[in-house]
Amino acid sequence: MSEIELGRFFEACAGSETMMARYEAMPLPDLIFAARCSGFDIRGQDFGKLVGGMEVWRITVADGEDIAAASKLWRHMWGRSHLAYVVKELWGGMDPEARTALVTGNGSNG
Q1: Which of 104, 78, 93, 81 is nearest to 7 (CA)?
Q2: Cβ(30)–Cβ(19) under 8 Å?
Q3: Do residues 58 and 90 touch, judged by C-beta distance below 8 A?
Q4: Half-sphere exposure of 43 (CA within 13 A, CB side)
Q5: Which of 10, 24, 59, 95 could make an SS bond with 83 (beta carbons 3.0 to 4.6 A apart)?
Q6: Structure-derived torsion over alpha carbons of residues 44, 14, 70, 79, reported in degrees to the nearest 10
């Protein structure tokens, strides 16, 4: 299941500034290719599903808000690369149990 691999990739990026620096400036197709060459079996379609799930969890569970244009999460995107936002704000902001449930498809967003 490549969502698990994508979670493994996010975890590796979170633990290595060198890895973040290598990947964060790459366009998504290049990032996927480079990550696959480095042993992460990730696919493009999993980014939307996993990132969307993390955003839903963050807004509804962690922040206790409705999903809306005024949700405070959106301000955390500004001024950073998309990968930095995903890894540092979303992935890093989730508790390990919620991450596991999201990447394995077990449990709910709450």
Answers
A1: 104
A2: no
A3: yes
A4: 7
A5: 24
A6: -90
Closest by alpha carbon to 62, among 50, 49, 72? 72
The count of C-alpha atoms lying within 13 angstroms of the C-alpha of 98, restricted to the half-sphere facing its C-beta, is 18
- The residue type of 107 is G
Determine phi and psi for 4, rounding to 5 degrees. Answer: -65, -40
- Give residue 43's Cα distance to chain centre: 13
pLDDT, one tens digit for every residue, the chain (110 residues): 588 999 999 999 999 999 999 999 999 999 999 999 999 999 999 898 899 999 999 999 999 999 999 999 998 888 889 999 999 999 999 999 999 999 988 755 44
The backbone region for 49, taken as left when phi is positive above 0, alpha when psi lies in -120 to 50, beta otherwise, is alpha
Q: How far, in Å, CA of 33 to CA of 29, rounded? A: 6
